[in-house]
Design brief:
It is a single chain. By secondary structure, the protein is an alpha+beta fold. It folds into two domains: about 10-175, no CATH class; about 180-335, no CATH class. It contains twelve helices and ten strands. It has an eight-stranded antiparallel beta sheet, covered by helices on one side. A two-stranded antiparallel ribbon has the order 1-2. A hairpin with a 5-residue loop joins strand 9 and strand 10 (about 320-330). The chain is elongated.
Length: about 350
């Protein structure tokens, strides 16, 4: 299916509508406007919908009036009516309730994606894979928590912008994580550093991570069990190639730049490494970056005669390079300075 010149929408939003149509068979305005709707009006609609569900399930008259909920009793005996209707009616109501819930989940997720894409002006010529679309919407129907809906909406927008960004394995992973899992991922993501396109969490200062960021080896173990990190401590060899004169580490809006200096061999940087699934999931979590953490990593290099500095990123170029400002040389504490 291909939709062209749809009400003057941008190309990314038009592509999103094509994907939604292919995934669920139809598109309506709520798919796109939920995130931008008036907050109070949405609250009233949400409460009204919830009361309707309660009334249908328990045969209770329920209303929302002047900011409060009223639930009436049966007039004949002044007791709550909790008697179940016959089997066919119960089955129909259950199926109807499940379908409404799934529809609402899909609309909330696609609205997140629409909000993410509203600022985009371009989209790749390639379209998301048919099987990927079908898998995505089957899974999205059962995503109910607001936190997880935000993540699924970003997955959809990311795949629309650049198909292949999220593998089917990552979709399956996201289907099975809990809120506590998501909280752990967010905490690890805050400390993630990208080096040569690979996501790592450098650990040369584990005591600093414990005292200043409350990150312990147990977090690494849990992340390994979850599948977003390799379960063992690793070492990254920096300056392994003789012609390499500079190493660049990115953390959100900050960058650590390390010069080879007088180093003649390579330096082994201890790290926890993210798996491919972990690296894809990191794309869903916007982080500001952690300059103090980069400084700790820089001190590790400086102590090995490799000069380092941190700076603020002002632009990321298409070739992987960055433009930066406000560079600050990292100076070792007196007791840590090399002889």
């Amino acid at each position: 299916m291909e939709i062209k010149d749809l009400a003057g929408l941008s190309e990314p939003l038009t592509r999103l509508i094509e994907v939604i149509s292919q995934g669920v068979g139809e598109v309506s305005r709520p798919y796109l406007v939920r995130k931008n709707a008036d907050a109070k009006a949405y609250e009233i609609r949400a409460i009204a919908g919830a009361l309707k569900e309660v009334a249908e399930r328990h045969q209770l008259p329920a209303v929302f009036k002047d900011g409060e909920i009223e639930m009436w009793q049966r007039t004949e005996d002044r007791t709550l009516s909790l008697e179940a209707p016959d089997y066919e009616i119960r089955s129909a109501r259950r199926l109807g309730y499940q379908q409404r819930k799934r529809q609402d989940n899909v609309e909330r997720i696609t609205a997140v994606a629409a909000a993410e894409l509203s600022q985009q002006t371009e989209v790749a010529d390639e379209r998301p894979d048919d099987d990927w679309i079908n898998r995505f919407f089957r899974a999205a129907e059962d995503v109910s928590s607001e936190q997880m809906q935000e993540l699924w909406g970003r997955i959809l927008s990311g795949e629309v912008i650049k198909p292949g960004s999220y593998s089917l394995k990552t979709l399956e992973f996201m289907r099975n994580i809990t809120k506590s899992d998501a909280d752990l991922i967010v905490e690890m993501a805050k400390l993630a550093v990208f080096y040569s396109g690979t996501a790592i969490l450098p650990t040369p200062a584990k005591e600093w991570l414990r005292t200043e960021r409350k990150i312990f080896p147990g977090h690494h173990f849990a992340a390994g069990e979850l599948g977003i990190m390799y379960p063992t401590d690793l070492n990254y060899r920096v300056f392994l190639e003789p012609e390499m004169t500079q190493a660049v580490f990115l953390s959100g809006g900050f960058v650590l730049i390390v010069d080879r200096g007088s180093v003649t061999g390579h330096i082994e940087l201890p790290v926890w490494k993210f798996t491919r699934i972990g690296q894809e999931v990191l794309q869903l979590i916007p982080v500001d970056g952690d300059e103090p953490h980069l400084t700790q990593i820089g001190e590790f290099f400086a102590a090995r005669n490799a000069p380092a500095k941190t700076a603020q990123v002002i632009e990321r170029l298409s070739n992987g390079a960055v433009r930066f400002q406000n560079a600050k040389d990292i100076r070792l504490p007196v007791e840590s300075a090399p002889d």
